[in-house]
Amino acid sequence: MLSRLEKRANVRIKSDKAKQSVTNSFSITIFAFHMQKIYDDPEIGEVLLVKSTRAKRLSIKVHPTKGVRMTIPYYVPYSQAVLLFQQKRDWVLETYQKVRQTYAQGSDPLPQNEFEEIVEEYRQKAKETLVPRLRMLAQRYGFTVNKVTIKHNASNWGSCSSKGNINLNLNLVRVPQVSADYVLLHELCHLKYRNHGEDFHRLLENLCCQHILWMIQEEKSQDATTVALMAKKSHAAFPVQHAMEKGLKNVRII
């Protein structure tokens, strides 16, 4: 026979389970009524278009690191959403540049023209260094790349399209070479695997291992040696990827 304390405990457990069930059901329901697509703007980068059953009108949020998000009523077609975005594009671009500049430089931002000059310097350097580096890695590891574009994105370091085109963030010129190479290898692997599944990560880990050894032996890279030592001590599922990626986390995208 259960004691009074045991009965209370059982009631509490059942109550917690019931709450969890309601919470799970609610989360699934909300998720089912949100759909999203990405619109790629040549200057702004990826714009997230989100359909919501709760939205009664169009709204645009501009964030210095998360990028641009446009929420639309559920019944509005994506094609119409893109047209609406293009009507607001000049405002979005101007606002986006301001918030990113302020975020990157804190409370004492540079004048807009000086900030744009710095961005263009990074863009030119990226074209001169990142593009040939990517093509070298593609040839070395057996990939075929179509078009390579340098972009000024706030939400990602790179992307790969189904047509074999690769976009690279100009901010990659500000990170250590070993970390930039990690992004390049990451996007090359997306030419074969369009997701982040197990096969993708196994391929990327294998390439990262080969590449770190090559950087140590051929380029005498101290950063690559450091990555190798970090990977040896790591308990991550894919230790070399994890070690190479760390250099990206200390850089604030501007």
Protein architecture, described:
This protein has 254 residues and is an alpha/beta fold. It has two domains: 33-105, no CATH class; 112-249, Metalloproteases ("zincins"), catalytic domain (Zincin-like, 2-Layer Sandwich), CATH 3.30.2010. The protein contains eight helices and seven strands, in the order H-E-E-E-E-H-H-H-E-E-E-H-H-H-H. It has helices at residues 4-32, 78-87, 89-105, 112-141, 177-189, 198-218, 222-233, 239-249, and strands at residues 34-41, 45-52, 59-63, 67-73, 148-151, 158-160, 166-169. Helix 5 packs antiparallel against helix 6 (198-218) and helix 6 (198-218) packs across helix 8.
How does the helix and strand content classify structurally? alpha/beta
Number of strands: 7
What is the name of the CATH topology of the largest domain?
A: Zincin-like
Helical amount among residues, as a percent range?
A: 55-70%
CATH homologous superfamily (4th level) name of the largest domain? Metalloproteases ("zincins"), catalytic domain
Order of helices and strands: HEEEEHHHEEEHHHH
Given this structure, which CATH class of the largest domain is correct? Alpha Beta
Instruction: Please name the CATH architecture of the largest domain.
Output: 2-Layer Sandwich
How many DSSP helices?
8
The neighbouring-strand order within the major sheet is 1-2-4-3
What percentage of the residues does DSSP assign to strands (E)? 15-25%
**Main pleated-sheet profile:** 4 strands, mixed
Shape: globular
Q: List the domain count as a whole number.
A: 2
The low-confidence parts are: 1-32
Overall pLDDT score: 82
How far is the N terminus from the C terminus?
67 Å
Rg is 23 Å
